[in-house]
């Protein structure tokens, strides 16, 4: 995703094994979907790395020095393409858990409203 006109995903690394059964889907992805994905995203640096004996995964390196790793073992090429697109579309920010469900700039001084209020 672009933030202020700058794509946040800088580099996508595709790690796979050339003989492992769990890498069958990513090898098919590299033959069918990867060339078109590379042409549609010229701003993105795509790197394929051969790592024998390891399960395949996608690693996204972002401009804010964060990285995301997604394991894609035993997935078909269409699912892997969806995960690569999600990595490209994300901003690379860390996931922050909210403390409450209600987020306001000006919280109420009186507290939250409940049905148990008696006058």
UniProtKB/TrEMBL annotation:
<dbReference type="InterPro" id="IPR036249">
    <property type="entry name" value="Thioredoxin-like_sf"/>
</dbReference>
<protein>
    <recommendedName>
        <fullName>Large ribosomal subunit protein mL43</fullName>
    </recommendedName>
</protein>
<keyword id="KW-0496">Mitochondrion</keyword>
<dbReference type="GO" id="GO:0005762">
    <property type="term" value="C:mitochondrial large ribosomal subunit"/>
</dbReference>
<dbReference type="GO" id="GO:0032543">
    <property type="term" value="P:mitochondrial translation"/>
</dbReference>
<feature type="domain" description="Ribosomal protein/NADH dehydrogenase">
    <location>
        <begin position="18"/>
        <end position="91"/>
    </location>
</feature>
<keyword id="KW-0687">Ribonucleoprotein</keyword>
<dbReference type="GO" id="GO:0003735">
    <property type="term" value="F:structural constituent of ribosome"/>
</dbReference>
<keyword id="KW-0689">Ribosomal protein</keyword>
<dbReference type="InterPro" id="IPR039927">
    <property type="entry name" value="Ribosomal_mL43"/>
</dbReference>
<comment type="similarity">
    <text>Belongs to the mitochondrion-specific ribosomal protein mL43 family.</text>
</comment>
<dbReference type="Pfam" id="PF05047">
    <property type="entry name" value="L51_S25_CI-B8"/>
</dbReference>
<dbReference type="InterPro" id="IPR007741">
    <property type="entry name" value="Ribosomal_mL43/mS25/NADH_DH"/>
</dbReference>
């Amino acid at each position: 995703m672009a933030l202020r006109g700058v794509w946040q995903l800088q580099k996508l690394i595709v790690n796979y094994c050339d003989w492992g059964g769990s890498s069958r889907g990513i090898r098919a992805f590299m033959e069918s979907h990867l060339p078109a994905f590379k042409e549609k995203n010229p701003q993105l640096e795509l790197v394929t790395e051969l790592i024998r004996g390891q399960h395949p995964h996608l690693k996204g390196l972002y401009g804010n020095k964060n990285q995301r790793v997604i394991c894609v073992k035993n997935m078909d090429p269409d699912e892997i393409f969806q995960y690569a697109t999600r990595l490209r579309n994300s901003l690379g920010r860390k996931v922050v858990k909210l403390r409450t469900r209600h987020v306001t700039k000006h919280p109420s001084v009186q507290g939250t409203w409940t049905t148990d209020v008696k006058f």
